[in-house]
Structure formats: structure tokens, C-alpha cells
């Protein structure tokens, strides 16, 4: 295993949201457009995902490929059927939980901060702050460095390692919430609203929709941090991932299965019940007394979105960067160029242009995150 | 402001009519005068804030953020007030986020005393102090039109529930009342007598019909019913009392100002229910203009002499509700109709006539009449029970409408645009075209746009089809692959068709909608432009 050639980047750097990247450390890297190779010779968008021709690997491919580097375990990024998968230990565990141990021909653990060389291409994983195990992937060759950030959020999250800005020539970002209307409030305040509603509606079960990987565990952990110590009921689809988070040292308190076998209908009055958003349309939701439908998602910022989903208590809790965080991250990293993979790419590209950074949309398909 | 913002937020998200009614009547109970009255006015669009107009809000936000970023945000959110509320960049400062702007009452009163120059400055100052949800409530307050699934009628029902009175009592009083409605609340709380409707010529809640169903024809005896044409204009109520003359829409909006030519001729004392048309009497015959002629007269702030001359307003009467001081609404339809004919007879025949009754002995006979409509401005037939009193709302079993079958064509999806509001994640507005020339070598020409007629499930399928078959993107619009072999065929239903110089195809449809998705149909088999041209020729 080779160390990243002359990279002075330290893990200690900039682990907090607005902590500036110390530019002086990186000046040696900045040789704009004097690189031996063009950025899109090192990494380029293909229908199946980002592809590195010299390294012969894809990042987060949406179709089975020979060599895949996976940023995190969400289903739109991590798919089964690849020949070889390189990802963090947690992401590999999550893929095994979701798809079975044999989801890939072979797997290899990428430790955060350690450099691997793949056919002359340096590859390094850095924390992305999105969900447990999530990573950005830095790809470097000949003094050129590109960071594919996958999905990320710079704000603190008690269930995963914090995002760190990585110095690079090209920063590849998503733009799920890439519009100035998305300014996510403090997640703790949203949890307080949920607890306020639970207190005010003791006869109703609060059904909180939360994506099964990451969001659900974060909501539970935030409830515990807010002092809520009642048992929390969970849909069967959340159980294995909650168990896994527990095994990784993230305490979630007492969780009980939200099934009728465990009690009568009235038993759920005043309870908090978590389930995947997809379960809310079917029979499962109808078993609860006068359910109050809630949904923890960045989309809940827009009223008509909440209304469309029949959500009575929207909780704006997102595992993605909001507008201010996207723009602050780009400002802090100050790359030569920004590539936007998916989401509201037009607005983010516009912002980059207004602020003197070259930017282009990649129009990548298959990553739209409606369940976020 | 916080209390009003909470009401709006909760109303938006409370599912179902009953939940909203409970919430509103609870609000009326908990909140003192005059705030509850101003809230009621805001929710029923009764608050006219002259010092701020939507265009001024656009200017305010244009001064604060990039126009292109605002446009993209607005495209996504689909609502001006919500977009500004969310995107408003709050400056750092001692007041930021303190949410200590004045109360609803304070805001309404400050704006009432403000000039058009001061109004927007006040708003900007408050926006800097408020949080996003209070910003939304403030902006909705000044622009009106809360898109929150709450009709004025529902607000009146909540008042009725709050006071334990019938909603029609509130509707009858409504036009004589002014915000903040103190006399109304005093009466509803039982501390004062019912306000006397001081306003002359109040609106009288209208009677509406149900669509007739196949089973009704076997169930109902034709001898119990009369029928008349359903004219394709605007249902109105013309009323004159003690020198006050008003023209109301069927929901009670006062549109007198737009039709001075008709209002000047309301030379009677009473209330007539009828259809507003553009029509002219010549040589004893009334010739009626098309719906688009009538549209020339709608939504105009000023009415020019030329407009009045070229598109004269005309009232075709259906019913008589009030004759002088006598309320006729309890009488059977047949008796009211006789009174109506006597009432209309002395009026100016250039402005009024009675909708003719249709003679029929069986439903089949009526069906024959409906298949051979004598004029294009007829939407179908109305069937009314001879003994029916005039009952506000939509009582069962009294009045039925039997609409003409819509026109149908098969057209090919050409462009899709991202929707607004709750459909903003989907491509939901479709432009479709038909063939000019042979499909193999001819071209598709766009003939119309539709954004409804499909289910939510179908929307998802079309949206996926659009994404999978995009050939070009221009902002929120995608151009969809459409040729003789590849393409999605819609069966489009529409109510009418006319020549148009504004459209490349030369035709314009009225009320087009997606009737069916024809996944099974090859695009080459979609209709030709000639078919539409024949329809126009047939209508003339
Ligand atoms: Zn993700």
C-alpha cells in the first residue's frame, strides 16, 4: 500500500461545517490546467456511472461492472452484481445486509485516509458525513486530483463520521437540494417539534417516515439525545440496519417491533413508530390508532410536497447538504472546476459561474433521491 | 403573526374537510377580535391591501437575489409567496430571526395606512425579521389566494359550525359585511342580534346540478322533469334592489364592474339566475358569440366602448329567485318558470331572454335532441324536476346535467414540462401534436397542451416515459422522441375547436385533457391535421 504521493492533507483538517480549508498547505497542488491529463481523462461520466479509464474502475455504477468503488450503502449508489467492490468496512457490511454476502465476486475494505494505487491511479476514501460508512472518493494521478463526494452533509450527525473538505482540482458534487429555497433548519429543533406533537396528541400514534439506512437511525439517536426514553417502535424493514448501527457502537435505546402481534391497536396510542416511507400507503399504517403521519426528509421544506404526500407533520431532517452548505463547501474547497452529478444542477452551476468557478452538469441518471 | 402563520401551516397539512373545519372553528373560538376577523378576511380573499401588489414583491426579491436563481426556485416551488418566503436571504442583524414583527392586526392596520411607496418597504422590513413560515403567511396575506385547499365556502361553514347556524344564513349576510366582521362574530357568539343585511342586492347562494348517470334514466320518470339547453357561458346571478345592481358569479364574486352594459339594463327589482353570454339581437333572432368572444370580456380592469359594442353582454335567464319583496325560492320550478317569463317579458330584448324549454316525452327523445345541438355554444342539456324548490348547494335528485360527448382525437406527445406545486417533481404538462402529411414523411404539428385527465399512477408512468425518451432539454421542458414508430399516443378529449392564428397548426382546442393513454397505439396511427380541420368545418 502506497501513501498518497505528496499529499499533506491531514484528517484533522476541517472536520467541522464551516472550518476553512487551510489553503497554504495545498498551493503545491494547484497547477491549473498544466496537468499531464485532462480531468475527463481521469474520470468521466458514462451511462453506467463515473468511470476512470486509466484505473479501469467505476464509482457508484448503476449497472453491474467489473470493478466498482462505492461511496455509501444507499440503494441508488450501492448495487449488487459487481465483479469486485472497494468500499469502507461499514458500506461493505451494509451491502451484505441488504443484498447478501455474495453481492459481489470479491470485496476489499478501504480504510478512511489510506491511499491505494489502482493501475497507477491513487485512490483515497474520506468521510462524507452522509450515513454510517459514507465516504468521498479522491482519485489522483500526475498531480491532478478529483474528488467524487457521493452524497454528503457537512453538519454534525451523531451516527456517522463528520464530512471533511478535501482539497482538489475538480470537485464532483450532487445537488439534491441545490436551490436557494432549501435551507434546512437545525435537526434538533425538528425533533423538538415532533416531541411537542407527541405530547399534544397522546391518543394518536406518530408514524414517522424515515429512510431505512441512515435517516431512521439518526432520528432515533436525536430523539434519545433530546431525552426521549420511551420504547420506539420500528417497522420490520428497519430492524437489521438498526441492529447493525447498535453493533457499531451507536446506541439507539429500546426498540420494539411495530407489529400487531406485540399488542392491541390501542397500545400504540402516544407512541413514536418509525417505518420506511413506502410502508405508509399500505395496510401496515392502518393498524395504528388515528395515525399522525410525519416524514423526516429535506423535501419537507416545500409545503406542497408535504401536502402531496399526505404528511401532517413534516420534519425537515436531511442527510444531504442544503443550499448554504453546498455553496459553503465549494467556497471552502475552491476547486478549479465543479461537476454536478444530479439533482437541481442548473441552479448550482449558475451559482458557480456567478462566483467565478467553472462548473458543468453531468446529467447523471439513476441517482435521484426522492426517499431522502 | 406567529399565531396566524401556525394556522396557515396547520391548515395546509390537515387532511380532510372535517379536520380543517375543526381547526378553523377552534381558531375563531380562541383568537380575539379584530385578529380573527382579519384572518377570516385573508382566507376568503376579502382583504384588499392596496399598498402592495404581487409585482412589487417580485421587485423586492429581485433586489435581493439573482434573477436566474429565483426563476429556477420559482419553477420548482410553483408558488410565488412560498418561493420568496423560502429563498428570502435574511441579513445578519439584531432583528434577524427574532420573529418579533407586529401581530396580524398590526400588519393589516399598518398596510392600510401605507402608501404604495411605503408598503413594500414595510414588507421588506418584516421579511427580514420573520422566520420562513411567518414570511409565507405574510406574503400570502398581501397577495391573497392561499393555495391551501380551503375555499371561502369552507371558511363560511366553519363560521356556521362555530356559531351553530346554517351556512346559507352566513352566505346571505356575507356581502353586507366588512372585515374584521365584528357584528358577525358578536352574533355567532350570541352577544348580539343577527346583523341586518344592510347591503341591498345581496348574493343568494345558487342551486347546482349533478351529472346524470345511466341508472338515473331507468329510475326517473321523464314526465316529472323539464329540460333546457345548458348554455356555454358563465352562470351568473343578476340582482337589483333599491337602486343597487349587481352581477355575481355562482360563487358570489361580484363581477358588476366588468359588465356595465348589462348592469345598466337591470331595470327591475329582483334576482334572476341565468347564463351570461355575448349575444346580439338582430331581426328578431338572438345570435350568440362563442366562449372565446365572452373571454374577451372577462378579467378586464377597464371596459372600453369598443369592447361593449363588439361583444355585448347578454343574460339568458333560467330562474327567478326574488320578485320585488317576494322570495320565490320555496316555490316549485314550474311556478317559478311561469313567473320568470312574465318578469323577463317587459325587459330590453337586446339584453335579456328566457332559456327556451325543450319538449320531450321520453329520455330517448331528449337524447336525440342532445345529439343534434342547434348551436355550438351549448354544452348539453339540463334536466330539472318540475316540483323542485330552489335549494342552495347541490341537492340530490332535483337538477341534472347531461353534457354533450366531448370530441376525441389521438395525438402524439411532443414536449413535456415540469409541473408546479405538488407536481413539481414530475413532467406533468404535455404538448401533443397530430400529423401534417403522411406519418412516414410528414411532420407532427403541436395542436394543444394538457395537464390533467390522468391518474397519479399514470402520471408516474408518463413521467418515466418522458425521462427515458428525452432528446433535448430546454430548462424545465423536455423534447420527447416522437416519430412514426416511437412515441406515446394520447387519446385527447376536448370540448370545442376553432381556428387560431396563434398556433402553428392553425387550430386551437378548448379544455383539452388526456382521456386515455394509448400505450398500444403506434404513433403512425395518430390523427391527421385534416381530421381536426373537418371538425372545425363541421362546427360551423
Ligand atoms: Zn445517499
What is the H-and-E element order of chain A? HEEEEEHEEEEEEHEHEHEEHEHEHEHE
> What fraction strand of chain B?
15-25%
Proportion in helices of chain A: 10-25%
Number of strands of chain B: 21
CATH level-4 homologous superfamily of the largest domain in chain B:
DNA ligase/mRNA capping enzyme
Q: What is the average per-residue confidence, as pLDDT of chain A, rounded to a whole number?
A: 87
CATH H level, superfamily name of the largest domain in chain A: Ribonuclease Z/Hydroxyacylglutathione hydrolase-like
Gyration radius of chain B, to the nearest Å? 26 Å
Strand order of the largest sheet of chain A: 7-8-9-10-11-18-19
For this structure, what is the CATH class of the largest domain in chain A?
Answer: Alpha Beta
Stretches of chain A where pLDDT is under 50 for at least 5 consecutive residues are 1-33
Shape of chain A: globular
Count structural domains of chain A: 2
Give your account of this protein's structure.
The complex is a heterodimer of chains A (372) and B (540). Chain A is of the alpha/beta class and 372 residues long. Chain A is built from nine helices and 19 strands. Chain A is globular. The two termini of chain A are 36 Å apart. Chain B has 540 residues and is α+β, with helices and mostly antiparallel strands. Helix content of chain B is 35%, strand content 24%. Chain B has 20 helices and 21 strands. In chain B, the strands form four sheets. In chain B, strands 3, 4, 5, 6, 7, 8 and 9 form a seven-stranded mixed β-sheet that branches. In chain B, strands 13, 14, 15, 16, 17, 18 and 21 form a seven-stranded antiparallel β-sheet that branches. In chain B, strands 1-12-11-2-10 form a five-stranded mixed β-sheet, with no helix packed on it. In chain B, a hairpin with a 2-residue loop joins strand 7 (313-323) and strand 8. In chain B, helix 5 (67-77) crosses helix 6 (80-87) and helix 10 packs across helix 11 (167-174). The chains are: A alpha/beta (372), B alpha+beta (540). The structure holds zinc ion (ZN). Residues 72, 74, 77, 130, 151 of chain A line the site of zinc ion. Chain A: GO terms for molecular function: RNA endonuclease activity. Chain A: InterPro entries: MBL, RibonucZ/Hydroxyglut_hydro, Xnuc_lig_assoc. Chain A: This is Putative mRNA 3-end processing factor.
Amino acid at each position: 500500500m502506497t501513501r498518497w504521493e505528496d499529499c499533506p492533507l491531514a484528517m484533522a483538517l476541517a472536520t467541522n461545517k464551516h472550518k476553512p480549508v487551510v489553503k497554504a498547505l495545498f498551493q503545491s497542488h494547484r497547477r491549473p490546467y498544466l496537468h499531464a491529463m485532462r480531468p475527463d481523462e481521469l474520470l468521466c461520466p458514462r451511462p453506467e456511472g463515473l468511470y476512470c479509464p486509466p484505473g479501469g474502475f467505476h464509482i457508484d455504477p448503476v449497472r453491474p461492472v467489473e470493478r466498482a468503488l462505492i461511496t455509501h450503502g444507499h440503494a441508488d449508489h450501492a448495487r449488487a452484481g459487481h465483479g469486485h467492490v472497494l468500499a469502507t468496512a461499514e458500506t461493505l457490511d451494509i451491502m451484505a445486509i441488504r443484498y447478501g454476502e455474495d453481492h459481489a465476486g470479491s470485496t476489499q475494505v478501504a480504510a478512511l485516509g489510506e491511499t491505494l494505487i489502482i493501475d497507477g491511479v491513487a485512490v483515497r476514501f474520506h468521510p462524507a458525513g452522509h450515513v454510517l460508512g459514507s465516504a468521498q472518493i479522491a482519485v489522483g494521478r500526475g498531480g491532478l486530483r478529483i474528488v467524487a463526494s457521493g452524497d454528503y452533509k457537512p453538519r454534525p450527525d451523531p451516527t456517522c463520521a463528520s464530512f471533511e473538505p478535501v482539497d482538489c482540482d475538480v470537485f464532483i458534487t450532487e445537488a439534491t437540494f441545490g436551490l436557494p429555497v432549501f435551507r434546512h433548519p437545525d435537526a434538533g429543533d425538528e425533533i423538538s417539534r415532533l416531541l411537542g406533537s407527541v405530547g399534544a396528541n397522546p391518543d394518536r400514534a406518530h408514524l414517522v417516515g424515515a429512510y431505512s439506512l441512515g435517516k431512521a437511525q439518526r432520528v432515533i439517536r436525536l430523539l434519545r439525545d433530546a431525552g426521549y426514553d420511551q420504547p420506539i417502535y420500528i417497522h420490520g424493514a428497519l430492524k437489521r440496519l438498526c441492529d447493525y448501527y447498535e453493533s457499531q457502537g451507536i446506541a439507539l435505546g429500546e426498540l420494539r417491533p411495530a407489529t400487531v402481534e406485540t399488542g392491541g391497536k390501542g397500545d400504540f396510542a402516544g407512541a413514536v413508530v418509525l417505518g420506511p416511507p413506502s410502508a405508509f400507503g399500505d395496510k401496515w399504517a392502518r393498524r395504528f390508532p388515528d395515525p399522525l403521519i410525519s416524514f423526516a426528509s429535506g423535501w419537507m421544506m416545500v409545503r406542497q410536497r408535504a401536502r402531496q404526500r399526505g404528511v401532517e407533520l413534516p420534519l425537515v431532517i436531511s442527510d444531504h447538504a442544503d443550499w448554504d452548505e453546498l455553496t459553503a463547501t465549494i467556497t471552502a474547497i475552491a476547486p478549479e472546476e465543479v461537476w454536478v452529478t444530479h439533482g437541481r444542477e442548473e441552479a448550482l452551476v449558475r451559482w458557480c459561474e456567478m462566483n467565478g468557478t467553472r462548473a458543468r452538469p453531468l446529467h447523471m441518471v439513476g441517482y435521484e433521491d426522492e426517499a431522502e | 403573526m406567529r399565531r396566524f402563520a401556525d394556522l396557515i401551516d396547520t391548515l395546509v397539512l390537515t387532511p380532510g374537510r372535517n379536520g380543517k373545519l375543526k381547526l378553523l372553528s377552534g381558531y375563531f373560538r380562541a383568537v380575539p377580535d379584530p385578529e380573527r376577523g382579519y384572518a377570516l378576511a385573508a382566507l376568503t380573499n376579502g382583504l384588499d391591501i392596496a399598498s402592495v401588489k404581487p409585482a412589487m414583491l417580485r421587485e423586492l426579491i429581485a433586489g435581493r437575489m439573482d434573477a436566474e436563481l429565483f426563476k429556477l426556485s420559482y419553477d420548482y416551488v410553483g408558488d410565488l409567496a412560498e418561493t420568496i418566503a423560502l429563498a428570502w436571504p435574511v441579513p445578519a442583524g439584531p432583528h434577524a430571526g427574532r420573529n418579533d414583527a407586529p401581530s396580524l392586526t398590526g400588519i393589516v392596520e399598518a398596510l392600510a395606512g401605507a402608501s404604495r411607496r411605503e408598503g413594500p418597504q414595510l414588507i421588506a422590513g418584516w421579511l427580514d425579521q420573520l422566520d420562513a413560515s411567518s414570511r409565507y403567511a405574510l406574503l400570502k396575506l398581501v397577495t391573497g389566494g392561499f393555495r391551501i385547499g380551503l375555499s371561502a365556502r369552507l371558511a363560511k361553514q366553519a363560521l356556521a359550525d362555530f356559531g351553530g347556524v346554517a351556512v346559507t344564513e352566513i352566505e346571505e349576510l356575507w356581502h353586507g359585511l366588512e372585515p374584521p366582521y365584528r357584528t358577525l362574530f358578536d352574533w355567532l357568539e350570541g352577544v348580539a342580534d343577527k346583523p341586518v343585511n344592510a347591503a341591498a342586492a345581496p348574493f343568494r347562494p345558487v342551486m347546482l346540478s349533478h351529472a346524470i348517470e345511466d341508472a338515473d334514466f331507468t329510475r326517473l320518470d321523464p314526465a316529472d322533469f323539464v329540460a333546457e339547453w345548458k348554455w356555454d357561458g358563465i352562470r351568473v346571478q343578476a340582482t337589483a334592489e333599491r337602486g343597487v345592481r349587481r352581477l355575481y358569479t355562482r360563487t358570489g364574486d361580484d363581477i358588476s364592474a366588468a359588465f356595465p352594459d348589462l348592469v345598466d339594463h337591470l331595470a327591475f327589482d329582483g334576482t334572476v339566475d341565468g347564463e351570461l353570454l355575448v349575444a346580439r339581437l338582430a331581426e328578431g333572432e338572438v345570435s350568440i358569440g362563442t366562449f372565446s368572444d365572452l373571454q374577451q370580456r372577462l378579467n378586464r380592469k377597464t371596459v372600453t366602448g369598443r369592447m361593449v359594442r363588439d361583444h355585448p353582454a347578454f343574460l339568458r335567464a333560467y330562474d327567478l329567485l326574488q320578485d320585488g319583496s317576494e322570495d320565490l325560492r320555496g316555490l316549485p320550478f314550474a311556478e317559478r318558470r311561469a313567473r320568470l317569463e312574465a318578469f323577463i317579458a317587459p325587459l330590453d330584448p337586446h339584453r335579456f331572454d328566457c332559456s327556451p324549454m325543450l319538449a320531450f316525452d321520453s329520455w330517448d327523445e331528449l337524447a336525440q335532441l342532445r345529439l343534434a345541438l342547434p348551436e355550438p355554444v351549448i354544452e348539453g342539456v339540463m334536466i330539472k324536476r318540475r316540483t323542485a324548490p330552489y335549494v342552495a348547494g347541490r341537492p340530490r335528485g332535483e337538477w341534472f346535467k347531461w353534457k354533450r360527448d366531448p370530441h376525441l382525437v389521438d395525438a402524439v406527445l411532443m414536449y413535456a414540462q415540469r409541473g408546479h406545486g405538488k407536481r413539481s417533481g414530475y413532467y406533468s404538462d404535455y404538448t401533443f401534436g397530430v400529423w401534417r402529411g403522411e406519418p412516414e414523411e410528414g411532420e407532427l404539428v403541436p395542436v394543444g397542451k394538457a395537464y390533467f385527465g390522468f391518474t397519479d399512477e399514470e402520471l408516474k408512468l408518463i413521467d418515466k416515459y418522458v425521462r427515458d425518451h428525452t432528446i433535448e432539454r430546454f430548462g424545465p421542458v423536455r423534447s420527447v422522441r416522437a416519430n412514426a414508430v416511437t412515441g406515446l399516443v394520447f387519446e385527447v378529449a376536448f370540448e370545442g375547436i376553432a381556428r387560431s392564428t396563434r398556433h402553428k397548426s392553425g387550430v386551437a382546442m378548448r379544455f383539452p385533457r388526456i382521456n386515455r393513454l394509448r400505450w398500444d397505439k403506434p404513433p403512425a396511427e395518430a390523427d391527421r391535421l385534416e381530421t381536426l380541420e373537418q371538425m372545425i368545418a363541421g362546427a360551423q
